[in-house]
Amino acid sequence: MTNKTNNKIAFVQGNEVCAEAALYAGAGFYAGYPITPSSEIMEHMARRMPAMGRRFLQMEDEIASLAAIIGASLTGHKVMTATSGPGFSLMQETLGFAIMAEIPCVIVNVQRGGPSTGLPTQAAQGDVYQARWGTHGDHAVIALTASNNQDLFEMTVEAFNMAETYRTPVIVLIDEVIGHLREKLQMPDPDELEVVKRLRTAVPHGVDYHPYLPREDGRLPMSDFGDKHRYNVTGLYHNMWGFPTTDPGVIDGLIHHLIDKIENNLHQITRYKEYYLSDADCVLISYGCSARSALHIVKNRRQRGMKLGLLELQTLWPFPAGLVREKCSGAQHIVVVEMNMGQVVHEVKRAVDHPERVYLANRVDGEFITPTNIKNVLRVIMGRGV
Amino acid sequence: MALQDYIRSRFFPHIWCVGCGHGTALNALLRAVETLGLDPSDIVMVSGIGCSSRMPGYVDFHTLHTLHGRALAFATGTKMSKPELTVLVPMGDGDALAIGGNHFIHACRRNIDITAIVLNNRIYGMTGGQFSPLSGPGVVATTAPYSTYDPAFDVMRLAVGAGASFAARGSTYHVVELQQLLVKAISHKGFSVIEVLSPCPTHFGRRNQQGDSVEMLEWLKANTAKLGSKAAEENPELITRGIFVEDERPEYCEQYERILEQAREG
Ligand SMILES: Cc1ncc(C[n+]2csc(CCOP(=O)(O)OP(=O)(O)O)c2C)c(N)n1
Ligand code: SF4
Ligand SMILES: [Mg+2]
Domain for residue A262, yes or no? Predict the structure, then answer.
């Protein structure tokens, strides 16, 4: 890792952290297309992967990048691509393919201001709903985020673990501030974090292997392209062999499986942090870079005896509604801090017992949301004393 | 291996219309694979969306049926991640050259060892007979009821210009020749493009007075000629069949191995 100050502490940028974490998790194949503010992930991979005997590919666009990593995931590799808004928009159809065909892969979206070319070099958190609903049709998806380098490392490793566990694409949804922020990273030891290996089938050669027949626990052991089991993979509704079908029973079973395998494991997938929540009468809810300012104001006001707390979400999708409801149950005021016109705030309103107590503190001008921005909103809600 | 061992008969009947050229092309392809004595476990077939792209479902290789136009991008990841695999990519004309045109030229440019088989019926078969970038002018299609005026790509010139190191054209009338061309295309080290003139009687033949499948095959016989043949020289209107380019050029995955070595030595 670059700029090492000693053998375990590094002073690095979030994008590099994300790339290093992917290597730690065992990413063997990366394909991408450059775009600000995510390019450093790709550049870091271009340098590091060949030296580790792993494979890196620059493709002709983001559609091809995601397609290529899916093609490589099927030969048995852990795979990743990274992009930002416009590229993530291009990936949506292919993302749906990975969901339908149940291909483990990790997609990083370092959010910038949108819509369109928007604000290439400035921060925003406007892609939260796109991560959830960007691809067409009913589906479930996992999206994780982080507010600092240490957490980003862990969440990226988690993304790989969840991709393997649930056989699904996992989105790491960070933002320009986190991607470009340089701060300390304590590099985990090789065995420090859990790394989930690809689950491969134990069905012997010559015995009919059903690539799309879930085990009792919902998991689907894979077989690598090139090995002895030969099967079909398609984005069409398919049966247990992966062959296209229009059988209503099979279709119904598959759509339920695709959603249940994620929604039913919400508890295992949910990651969050909490600060001063036990007695908080005002709960801030935030994520990614915004959570840094939210935490700052919470600590600052605690020193003045005000009962502020912070719930920092790291799993954005599936949305941890039960957790939010529980943590907000005693709150008089709930303030969602995010850098968009209001996305997670809608989920929070749906989750809590008193949606009328939910407010939005946001900033959408390309500048980082500051503690003062949040304080101003708190003043309006709670009165001058804040 | 016997030919039928390459087929997943469990998933028959297939979806293709009676007289569709795609089945004949598959027949020639499987015979080529048999001639080469390839182990099906070493073959991956990747396709996009279209009638032609349904081919993978029926063959007992590792098969990946992807998105309209994107087959070569998926295939590039598969090949790069396991270069020892033989990767075959059947594509429709719209699939390969309209929506997939960008991936097509970049796969040519890289010269990655993949065999792209463009099943050219000059029409969008699966969606019901709209014109394609290979229809050329003067074709009646559901989206060109007064006839097309769009010029067509010349697949061979496009492939060669973009960097493919093997380019050939065959037809489903000339099946033995097609099989031989496929053998060469698959054995070639580098990106191979093989264009197969493959009639769609249902949507092209019917609207364009080419008649049923038998008449369309007759049309292929009458309107094509071997590259360099006397007939081709005498009548430049004829569509030529044969190998347009067969070059030795650095192959993409092999080049990457060098990068790996270089990076290891640091
Ligand atoms: C993104 C997208 N756009 C459009 C379609 C609809 N579509 C499916 S197949 C096809 C064209 C098929 O024609 P061709 O590629 O020539 O293959 P053929 O069926 O003739 O073999 C189209 C437009 C699609 N599936 N996906
Ligand atoms: S519509 Fe045309 S291309 Fe499709 S199966 Fe029928 S004949 Fe073949
Ligand atoms: Mg066609």
Answer: no
The answer to the question of residue A202 being in a domain is no
Domain end (from A186, A206, A222): A186
Q: Which of A52, A71, A60 is nearest to A32 (CA)?
A: A60
CATH number of the domain at A349, please.
Answer: 3.40.50.920
Tokens of A127: 């892609």
In a domain, A248, yes or no: no
By alpha-carbon position, which residue is closest to atom 8 of ligand 2? B20
- Three-state DSSP at B120 gives strand
Q: Which residues of B touch A97 (CB under 8 A)?
A: 66-67
Segment (H or E) for A234: strand A232-234
Q: Which residue type does A6 have?
A: N
* ipTM passes above 0.85: yes
The structural domain count of chain A equals 2
The answer to whether residues A251 and A351 touch, using CB atoms and an 8 Å cutoff, is no
Q: Whose CA is nearest to atom 13 of ligand 1?
A: B124
Q: Would you give the DSSP letter of residue A355?
A: G
**B98-124 average pLDDT score:** 98
The fold of the B3-265 domain, in CATH, is: Rossmann fold (3.40.50)
Chain B positions touching A93 (Cβ under 8 A) are: 67
Interchain CB distance below 8 Å, B73 and A243: no
**Which of A127, A153, A186 is the last residue before a domain boundary?**
A186
What CATH number did the domain enclosing A139 receive? 3.40.50.970
For A141-177, the pLDDT digits (tens) are 999 999 999 999 999 999 999 999 999 999 999 999 9
Please give the residue range of the domain that contains residue A357: 275-382
Closest-CA residue of chain A to B265: A51
Q: Parse chain B into domains and list their residue ranges.
A: 3-265
Q: Are A374 and A337 in contact (CB under 8 A)?
A: yes
Residues A298, A70: Cα–Cα separation, whole Å:
42
Grade residue A4 by pLDDT with cuts at 50, 70 and 90. Answer: very low
Pairing of strands A169-175, A142-144: parallel
